[in-house]
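Figure S7 source data.
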Amino acid sequence: MQFRTFGKKVTDFHPSALGFGAMRLPLLDDVPARINEPEAIRMIRYAIDHGVNYVDTAYPYHGGQSEIVVGKALQDGYRDKVMLATKLPVSQVKVEADTERFLEEQLKKLDVDHIDFYLCHGIGKSRWETMKQTRVLDTLAKALNDGRIRHLGFSFHDDLAAFKTIVDGSDMWEFCQIQYNYMDIQRQAGTEGLRYAAGKGLGVVIMEPLLGGRLANTRPPEAIQRIWDAAPVRRTPAEWGLQWVWNQPEVSVVLSGMNTFEQVVQNVESAGRSGVGSLTPAELEVIDKVRETYRALQPIACTACNYCQPCPSGIPIPDHFARYNDAVAYNAFPMYRRGYSRMDENKKANACAVCRECLDKCPQHLEIPDLLVEVHRVLGENQDPSPLSPLS
Ligand SMILES: NC(=O)c1ccc[n+]([C@@H]2O[C@H](COP(=O)([O-])OP(=O)(O)OC[C@H]3O[C@@H](n4cnc5c(N)ncnc54)[C@H](OP(=O)(O)O)[C@@H]3O)[C@@H](O)[C@H]2O)c1
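Tokens for the predicted NAP complex:
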């Protein structure tokens, strides 16, 4: 295992390059709340036995079961070998007393007397504002004071401007957790956000280093496979993705949500080969080409400028186009069809009333109503994508 640094505020902890993300534990009967406990515990303990010293869970993962299983995995002496991170479900904090209530419940579920790294979960611009109204940080200051939590941070989903506002919004933050991978250099916090947070001395924990598995696809589109085949080094797509993140000096620890024992073994081995600046210019060029090719494979030329919003029918048009694009580019239709099937019916693409108001607003001149028909055909009716791509 390789070990790294955790920002300038937490100097007594050297995180393992790989952290264990307990959001995608192995399941029984494919039911998210039914974790295959013996296998999950075996995986977590194997990782710890091989140097992983940071385990990340959260209140809602696996319908609330992840924290319980992580707590069990950390019995038998494992608790002392790792830093334990979990997250306050900020979206469920409605009144001031809720923060204290959740923290106490989490300590019980995890069966621990303290949490090493506690995060405000998945915050962005609007949750940051709500957090102020419910005085979340005041309550957490008390928990820091009495030792129930040791370090405070936040995990983030929004844009760069919101990220900077939140980083600068409190001097209590010691670390943050961002979505970052070779496709997201300009999305979410992006590379600028990563450097901004590190520049302020925060430890930066990385989530979704493989874009939730999309970059690990062993059967990627042909154009991508050709690039991997011509690369100067042989690596699996998963290892390419992880090594690229580890290559960045500002990254503290990379979480991967491994769901099989083999993935744990592979990622632990990859972490052993990792290092800041370890990729050669030729290897970095390979990743640049893969990124460009994935982008070129995205058929709808939507830039997510949001000018089409609000849609009179309430349809999140840019989100639909992003899902469609990713499903096509990453050849990941089942994953996106599952997500689409869970959407409210009145927000699905086929709820478009064809009022055509969006047509005047779209700077890319996209034929939005026609494209929404295509989105529903592919994601809602399980038909192959239109052969007319790229669509614009
Ligand atoms: N705070 C937040 O808002 C938030 C949000 C997201 C994640 N997180 C945390 O961050 C952690 C990491 O994010 P993530 O789970 O999205 O990470 P990720 O590494 O981007 O995605 C995990 C998926 O990648 C695939 N994978 C991993 N290792 C592989 C390997 N060696 N070979 C082939 N495929 C491999 C698996 O996909 P398959 O399932 O297809 O096999 C696995 O389910 C989570 O587990 C969670 O703890 C937090």
